[in-house]
Write a structure and sequence with these properties.
mainly alpha; Non-ribosomal Peptide Synthetase Peptidyl Carrier Protein, Chain A; two-stranded antiparallel sheet; two-stranded antiparallel ribbon; elongated
Length: 146
């Protein structure tokens, strides 16, 4: 039973739950960014490069051996275009996340600044001797009223 209690304490700590929420939101955000890259940016890049698809770029080291339409031995190729495509995807994803985090930080700073301006300033801290003198004054006032 001790193992279960330890696991429960571990799994229900705040930072584990925060991490789980972050992973879930990150996965959903990743889908959005992947769609942004694949559906918006890459078609524009393909159009700008006259329809060149990076994924098709390769250096064939050994051609495929064919028997009619059947592949006997597949080709051996360095598909460097796929690497270029993946790198471009990564750079766009990294830039998107950077801009998203930057926007969140700016909004958070504005909110904190506004909240600090609206909040009343706390009264200045009093020294111990001033507090003691105020207590004596209040006691003397009470005695004078009786």
């Amino acid at each position: 039973m001790g193992l279960m209690k330890e696991f429960k304490a571990f799994a229900l700590r705040g930072n584990v739950l925060d991490l789980a929420i972050g992973v879930i939101i990150g996965g959903a955000f990743g889908k959005i960014v992947s769609s942004l890259v694949g559906d918006l940016f890459m078609p524009v890049i393909g159009w700008a490069t006259s329809g060149l698809s990076f994924r098709d770029l390769k250096v064939v080291l050994k051609a495929a051996v064919m028997d009619g339409t059947t592949v006997v031995k597949p080709e051996v190729a360095l598909t460097y275009g796929n690497f270029i495509q993946t790198t471009v995807d990564f750079l766009i994803v990294a830039l998107s996340i950077f801009l998203f985090i930057q926007a969140i930080n700016k909004a958070k700073a504005r909110f904190e600044k506004k909240a600090a301006e609206e909040a009343p300033a706390p009264p200045p801290a009093k020294a111990d001797d001033v507090v003691l003198l105020e207590e004596i004054r209040d006691l003397l006032k009470k005695q004078a009223e009786k």
